Task: inverse folding
């Protein structure tokens, strides 16, 4: 008896959508083992990790609040990933977005601009800044053939240092007891709440609107179609005259714009000022969201909720179980591993042959 | 001791983690596999070496543990990317994200632990020879180890039959398979070797260079190592040059501060990353050079049937 992979005549659509479910299940099993290894009652730990954070109205609002930047960034990244454009620097583009949007809020100062002017202007600045930061790897790729994976990642470190410099230096709040942070934004630069007595803001509506727009672009617009073709069959795309250069630019700029918007959403939303770090790794977690969501809008929304729950669960585990919150990163990585492993079933099926003749060597 | 000698000594030390990681990745890529998980493997190597060094009081045992732990992580990559044929780019990214999370998780109790690290050697009389004494006999033992590794990789790839087979697997896996070589097994071996090397690079940081454990202490060196392999156009001796070049750039920050240059530390700290981008653009500009030197099947999954 031996088992081997046999190529399927066609990719399995069932496997495409079952893989994330399978991966989530396998991650839970790993979670069980981790909790067991730390002498926590697994059932109580699962409750504290996955149920308790969303057992209240406030908790659900937090879930949606954290899912907002994740779905937004993943949507932008997915446009590029479909065309094999690997932007992994969304964390840096988010930072630049927060910096530009936040910079405008600080410039506007105390309530001199009405909110309906200031907030859209902040989002516009953030999107442009994110796009500008993403344009660097796009330009280096199209002009110099430089690998966008490495350049976009290097720009994350540069963006973080830039923000750190700003809040330690020129933009530091003079009355902030020397803490590295900017002044608090004025009320007009803060996003209106969506749900009373929670932190959920209109950023969620914006994110959902952009997810829908992106879906229309990918599914209904010829350029979106061409980008998908380029990702699935580069040679065919080339033959059909689809510009690889344009795909790189569009893919990078879409990711940059969405990450920039997410940065403004964080600055003008739950944070309300500029800090040395504007995100607990949303830009990287969004890569996982894009994959787990199968680069599909609906999948991305669901995956962003799952990933948001992992963030909340990590915080809850720290408070209630005395487990380090770094467990979140561990689960995120595990989830992506299992997903990639489960994806083998999309193109292959397992065949078990009874005492198959061994090929002569 | 004059400043120039000091600078050379420091640059070699700063470049050593990159030498380890980039040489390992070079062998991996020569076999046709692109493993973007170097950063994650370095971090896991760093944390494993630090924990074992702290627990056993033996930094050398720590170095071994670092290499082993990172190789185990590389094994996960190999299973998913080689056996299960997942996209190598995505799997490598997953490895880096996972390594960051895993190292932060297991290292949380060791953040302020102090250990006795591996210190530079001192041989009486030899090291005391003016100028050349320190340059020849004053490095950290792991710096010498990295040079031995370089010699071994160079000899293996270009002086042995096994090295020729590995390169053949990277250039034309179908042909290597046709003449009877087990492509997947050879790639497994290369990936594990690359993992162990990345682990050594991380271990050098944690038990010799700093010595301490800080979350994310590799600060992008794994990614810089990937860029160095491109910069080196897949040649071991150029990896060495690139690593020391980048090592000296990371030092420029401290040199400038010591010299009293009035620029914020954050802006100076950007230098290695800016340098990586600039160098990558300059080297990649000539697409033909890259195409001629890169292993032909780099990053492509291999299907035996």
Result:
């Amino acid at each position: 008896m031996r088992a081997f992979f046999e190529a399927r005549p066609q990719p399995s659509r069932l496997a495409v959508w079952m893989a994330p479910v399978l991966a989530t299940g396998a991650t839970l099993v790993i979670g069980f083992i981790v909790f067991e290894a730390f002498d926590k009652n697994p059932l109580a730990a699962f409750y504290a990790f996955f149920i308790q954070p969303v057992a209240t109205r406030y908790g659900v609002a937090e879930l949606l609040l954290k899912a907002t930047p994740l779905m937004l960034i993943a949507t932008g990244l997915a446009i590029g990933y479909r065309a094999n454009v690997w932007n992994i620097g969304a964390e840096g583009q988010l930072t630049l977005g927060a910096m530009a949007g936040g910079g405008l809020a600080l410039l506007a100062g105390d309530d001199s601009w009405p909110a309906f002017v200031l907030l859209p202007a902040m989002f516009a600045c953030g999107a442009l800044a994110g796009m500008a930061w993403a344009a660097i790897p796009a330009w280096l790729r199209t002009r110099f053939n430089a690998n966008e994976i490495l350049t976009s990642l290097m720009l994350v470190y540069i963006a973080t240092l830039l923000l750190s410099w700003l809040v330690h230096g020129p933009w530091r709040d003079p009355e902030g007891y020397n803490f590295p942070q900017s002044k608090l934004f004025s009320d007009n630069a803060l996003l209106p709440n969506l749900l009373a007595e929670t932190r959920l803001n209109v950023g969620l509506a914006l994110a959902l609107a952009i997810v829908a727009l992106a879906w229309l672009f990918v599914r209904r617009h010829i350029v979106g179609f061409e980008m998908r073709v380029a990702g699935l069959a580069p040679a065919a795309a080339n033959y059909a005259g689809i510009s690889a250069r344009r795909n790189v630019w569009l893919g990078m700029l879409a990711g940059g714009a969405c990450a920039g918007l997410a940065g403004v959403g964080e600055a003008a939303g739950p944070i309300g000022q500029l800090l040395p770090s504007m995100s607990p790794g949303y830009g990287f977690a969004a890569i996982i969201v894009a994959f787990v969501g199968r680069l599909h809008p609906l999948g991305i929304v669901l995956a962003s909720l799952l990933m948001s729950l992992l963030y909340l669960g990590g915080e809850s585990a720290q408070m209630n179980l005395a487990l380090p919150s770094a467990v979140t990163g561990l689960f995120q990585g595990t989830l992506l591993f299992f997903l990639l492993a489960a994806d083998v079933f999309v193109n292959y099926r397992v065949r078990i042959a009874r005492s198959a003749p061994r090929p002569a060597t | 001791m004059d400043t120039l000698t000091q600078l050379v000594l420091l640059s070699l030390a700063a470049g050593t983690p990159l030498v380890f990681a980039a040489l390992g990745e070079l062998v991996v890529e020569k076999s046709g596999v692109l493993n973007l998980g170097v950063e994650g493997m370095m971090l896991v190597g760093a944390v494993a070496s630090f924990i074992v060094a702290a627990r056993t009081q033996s930094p050398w045992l720590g170095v071994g543990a670092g290499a082993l732990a990172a190789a185990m992580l590389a094994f996960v990559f190999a299973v998913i990317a080689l056996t299960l044929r997942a996209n190598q780019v995505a799997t490598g990214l997953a490895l880096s994200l996972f390594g960051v999370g895993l190292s932060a998780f297991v290292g949380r109790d060791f953040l302020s632990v102090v250990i006795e690290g591996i210190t530079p050697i001192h041989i009486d009389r030899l090291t005391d020879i003016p100028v050349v004494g320190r340059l020849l006999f004053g490095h950290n033992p792991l710096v010498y180890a990295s040079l031995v590794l370089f010699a071994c990789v160079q000899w293996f790839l270009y002086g042995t039959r096994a090295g020729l087979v590995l390169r053949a697997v990277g250039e034309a896996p179908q042909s290597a398979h046709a003449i009877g070589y087990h492509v997947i097994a050879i790639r497994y071996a290369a990936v594990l070797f690359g993992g162990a090397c990345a682990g050594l690079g991380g271990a050098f940081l944690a038990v010799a260079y700093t010595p301490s454990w800080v979350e994310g202490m590799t600060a992008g060196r794994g990614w810089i190592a990937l860029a160095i392999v491109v910069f080196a156009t897949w040649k071991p001796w150029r990896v060495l040059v690139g690593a020391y070049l980048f090592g000296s750039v990371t030092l420029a920050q401290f040199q400038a501060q010591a010299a009293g240059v009035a620029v914020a530390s954050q802006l100076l700290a950007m230098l290695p990353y800016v340098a990586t981008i600039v160098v990558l653009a300059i080297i990649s500009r000539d697409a033909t050079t890259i195409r001629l030197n890169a292993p032909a099947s780099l990053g492509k999954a291999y299907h035996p049937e």
The first helix of chain A runs from residue 13 to 37. The mean pLDDT of chain A is 87.
